[in-house]
């Protein structure tokens, strides 16, 4: 039996929000531009500070710099084309460029999940095993874990990228999404993609929610340890930080779950605009505020900022204390 003769799509077009009126395009472009600049500047500031200050060369800051670089990478892959779509009405992406963006979007999503897992492991060891922590989690150990995360995160999205790049795309070529993703390209394939999508869904659930299970476990252990050992103000600060970080983790994981499972639940539907808004929210909101939640609230970084300001004013700074208590901020 002869195979169908498909005309291969040479480019895709990012549509973005399908119901958005043209008079709001420039406003939306400025919003995404502001998000990109804020994400890049806030996270780059942490990277520069880590490079210049030897006192920050500790395992916890290695994780934070890794998260900052990942957030910068995600924003750089996702936002420029979206900004161009609304600023200059240029949403076109070449065939291979779209798949590269798709791979990198899912890559940084997987990487962030692994980084959050590593961060939870570091917190768990520091709080629950404080005496053994310095020997268990050295700079070399954390650097090795970080490099492992950056490498292995390519494997899982790579499977979906290769599978979908081999599928026939014969038109239409308009992507009803803010960027190229597996879900947005699935509807443009000319053949049945249920097997490929089920595989991509299973991989996404594994890379997202196995780390989440350990993160929840680590929080439970930390809360129990703090209730046993800490008292008064230390306990309140720990719970405050735990609640703040828990909100960010919830924003990262919970909306993703609803977006991913919607196609599998018959009575659960989501309009394209709501789906895109949800995707943009859980993708771009954490990178914007991560520097403030994980970094700029820690005591040592605030002391470094204070010292830099004192130097500019010609005031002699006080000595910094080296510590590893970023959970108590």
UniProtKB/TrEMBL annotation:
Subcellular location: Cell membrane
Cellular component, GO, one term: plasma membrane
Gene3D superfamilies in the record: Rhodopsin 7-helix transmembrane proteins
Origin: domain of life: Eukaryota
The entry's keywords: Cell membrane, Disulfide bond, G-protein coupled receptor, Glycoprotein, Membrane, Olfaction, Receptor, Sensory transduction, Transducer, Transmembrane, Transmembrane helix
Main location: membrane
Ranges for domain G-protein coupled receptors family 1 profile: 42-294
Name of the protein this chain belongs to: Olfactory receptor
Organism name: Seriola lalandi dorsalis
Source species taxonomy: Eukaryota, Metazoa, Chordata, Craniata, Vertebrata
